[in-house]
Specification:
Structural class: mainly alpha
Mean pLDDT: 87
Radius of gyration: 25 Å
Number of helices: 16
Low-confidence stretches: 1-5
Strand content: under 5%
Distance between the termini: 35 Å
Helix content: over 70%
Largest sheet: none
Amino acid sequence: MNREKERTPLIRRSGFQSLVASLLCIIIGLLIGYIVLLMINPSGAGNAISTIIENFFTYKKPKTQLKYFGSTLVKTAPLIMCSLSVLFAYKAGLFNIGVAGQYVVGAGASLYFALAFGMPWYVCLIAAILAGALLGAISGLLKAVCNVNEVISCIMLNWISLYLVNILLSQVKEPTSPYTFVLSSANPDAVLPSMGLSSLFSKNQYVTIAIPLAVIVAILIWILLEKTKLGYELKATGFNKNAAKYCGMKEKKNLVLTMAIAGGLSGMGAALLFLTGFEQWSCTQSAIPATGFNGIAAAFLGGLNPIGAIFSSYFIQHITVGGAYVDKTMYSAQISDLISSLIIYLCGFVFFFKYALNKRLDQRAEKKAALKAENAADTEEGGEDK
């Protein structure tokens, strides 16, 4: 006997709820940002918020738009990787706030191998992944063996990583500036290949295979988490390591492996930016690059879904870059960072929104079921009277 499969209503699906919640966060964040702009200077608020949203569309020529669209994508690739790092660890029950430090050591390893050893891009990329994985594994090992909270160990390692990388890269910096040598001049073989992608963006030389690589990795992470035995074990360990141990899983090994993979993703993200030649590392910087911390926001805005992280990462980078086009005589260039931070703050309510929505749906379902049962009882009682 054929039975129709009971389909889950669209509004009940976790992916749809995450999408709606993320869009709600974006809209509310932009609205609050607009109110802040009105309070600072009402005359230019409308133009400022539209400029932030438009980004490269503020240019009139299509070629110029494509060029700066490419530049936005260049900075999106590392942000995707950092968001994947955060969500991968979170899926396994760990909060990888050390993504920033892992990003830093990835940048240091890729640039040092490129400028000091003259290695080709793929060797530099592997070096960045291994460096990030090693740093992540240290936090995982401290968690698994000594029960040190990963948040504490990651924060400490963030600053240690920054200063060590500054010392390391000072050996390959320009004599008259704090910046490392220009990659395209010092070692052209270390620059990521374009594969013809630059021609699609008005010959923007910084557009490389970094973008498709980040997307491919996101898809692979989704497959790993949702379709493999390893992914199931990692998530099971995150939910309850004692239960995982009881089931025969190696919970300590899984904790270390999770943080190592997360760290490798962060390190790769740094390589996908610095191996394009888009930026040079400053050996005197005392602040950790914001990309690592922005990855936390992108991960939650994307609903902790690897595919959603691609779009959320682009959006955050889009409005961040868009802030550079705001009229500086009226507003600070950091106004886009303020709006980004508002959206990031609201991301914390994504799960609350999903909880509230599901609770409301459950109440409606209970009332509907109770009414149906009551009608059925009335019908049965009426039949007995007859």
